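Notes to self, nucleoside diphosphate phosphatase:
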Amino acid sequence: MKRPKLAGVFLFVSCLLVYLMFVKRHYAVFSPDAASPPSHHRHAAHQDADDTSASDAGRSFQYGIMFDAGSTGTRIHVFKFQIDDNEAPSLAHETFRAIKPGLSAYADDPEKCSSGILELLEVARSSVPASLWTRTPVVLKATAGLRLLPGDKASELLDQVRALFLQSPFLSGDDSVSIMDGTDEGISAWITVNFLTGGLHGADSPTVGMLDLGGGSTQITFSPQDEKTLQTSPIDYIRSFQMFNNTHTVYTHSYLGLGLMSARLAVLGGVDASPLGGSTELVSPCLAPEYSGSWEHADVVYTVKGQKAGEPVYEACLTKVEKVLYRKVMKASEAADVEFYAFSYYYDRAVDVGVIEEKDGGYIRVSDYTDAALRVCGGLSVSPQSPFLCLDLVYISVLLQELGFPPHKQFKLARTINQVETSWALGATFHYIESLKGH
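result:
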């Protein structure tokens, strides 16, 4: 009778050992790697582990949270990166959520922005493992909407967000909430594109240039290969930064006021300031001669009209556009030889004229914008697709030539690369994480 009893004890001990080994292995798999974020950042001071990464079945992961506070809404990107030794990280997952309106809508009552920010922080809490909250940086970068606000109103909104970030369980510091300047926007978008196309994965990997046409500003960024470009460009057009153990030097500039909506206002004859009456009339040869309608820009409603039929619309509009752009843009000679991706309104207007499919993107030449402008301006009637399509196409074709691109130059138009949005948010997250390493 003793043998079955011994067998039972042996079975119980075996089960206990297996269970303990499982618990130990499970703990080891999900416990964070060692190495701690800089102690000057809140939430980091009392951590034993020194890294924003965690091991998952033998792989290391790191998270970053980026709030994109734009003029029309606030968007959150929660990025999950897979970290491999001595290699650039790869993007394992992205969680995205957007809310409206933008932060600038709360300029007169900053506390009211709290509920939206808290809603997005909740998205972050549910996307990042709780064990990594204190090692995951949370950053908000505001763009055009806050740039246009009076300084004190913008500061109050940013202070409100900063307080909410400090109360959150995530890693935040004094530099976690800021207004992004146009140059940083251009560099961050360039990092995003080259990360997604593989240009940042080694010191010798070829990179691509980036063209972005927003509403208020337009950016050009590329990595010059010709020493002459570095020597002849204005000093503030050349920027160097560290990324994934490599130094990158780029030519980059943001032209504030030359985004499509600001330029449209200038071409129509308006000025970037609210008219005294709150409404004003603009007459332009870039619109169909018999057209009359309203257009809202920067909270001002304009009455816009076409001029009476006279000289051909395209030629008259071209003259207006050339005047607006005269000596405002610098040619980047080497840019003509660099492969470029183009985004935002470059993409949208190419879709409008049927050069590319909205979902798929594709390629376009400078001359395609010019040809489309000639066609649209020449066939203007009262109810075209958009009353401003002629103006927008003329503007884009002239802008690209002023930037130094010949008519035959071809660009790649893309909204996403490998199903990831080509915005500045991913690049800005990398840039911020890299900056933490320097502390």
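- The first strand starts at residue 53 and ends at 56.
- Confidence is low (pLDDT under 50) at residues 18-53.
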